[in-house]
Amino acid sequence: MAKWSLRNKLLLITISILIFSQGLITLVGVFSMKHASDDASETVKSYLKKEVSNYLEVSAENAAISVSSYLNRSFDIPITLAKILEESTGSPNDLVFTRDQIKQMMGSALESNKHISALYTQFELIVMTKWTSFTSDAAITRRV
Predict the structure, then answer these.
(1) DSSP letters along 69-97, please?
(2) 108: Cβ contacts below 8 Å, ≥ 6 apart
(3) What percentage of the chain carries pLDDT values higher than 90?
């Protein structure tokens, strides 16, 4: 190296600095791309978590609404029958149903509403004579 001219020495130093600079720039670029990729994947991951959470919340709300409406529909029939029977006992025109009529109403309600499995009524205790048959309650159940 002592025999080399100043020009060759400067050229060697310049080329070495350029190669080192190029390597350093490449290394910084690779690390910054990796960091940006990690940030992007974390952002996507958090976004997907939020989306899945929102989707599950909406699905749960829809399922709850569906179950609630199903239960409400199932309770509408017995409540309606109870109101009919309640109104018939207190009506001024004395519209009174017999037990057979009530059993028939319950049976037809069961037949027309397949989502209901059973309807129950309870009658007041009546005095049993030799001319009447006594039934303390009536239950209409669908046989599955």
Answers:
(1) HHHHHHHHHHHHHHHHHHHHHS-TT----
(2) none
(3) 32
Tokens of residue 71, six digits: 């239960």
Phi, psi (5° rounding) for residue 118? -160, 150
Q: Which ranges in 90-143 belong to alpha helices (H)? A: 99-112
Distance CA 89, CA 118 (A): 23
Sign of the alpha-carbon dihedral angle for 8, 14, 15, 16: positive
Global pTM exceeds 0.70: no
pLDDT tens-digit profile of 34-73? 888 888 889 999 999 999 999 999 999 999 999 998 888 8
List the one residue out of 122, 119, 120 whose CA is nearest residue 137: 122
Residue 101 near residue 133 (C-beta atoms within 8 A): no
Q: How many helices (H) and strands (E) does the chain have?
A: 2, 2
Torsion over CA: 102, 107, 109, 115 (sign)? positive
Q: Which of 101, 98, 100, 120 is nearest to 110 (CA)?
A: 120
How much is the pLDDT for 45? 94
Looking up tokens 């319950």 gives 106
User: Distance (Å, rounded) from C-alpha 119 to C-alpha 77?
Assistant: 9
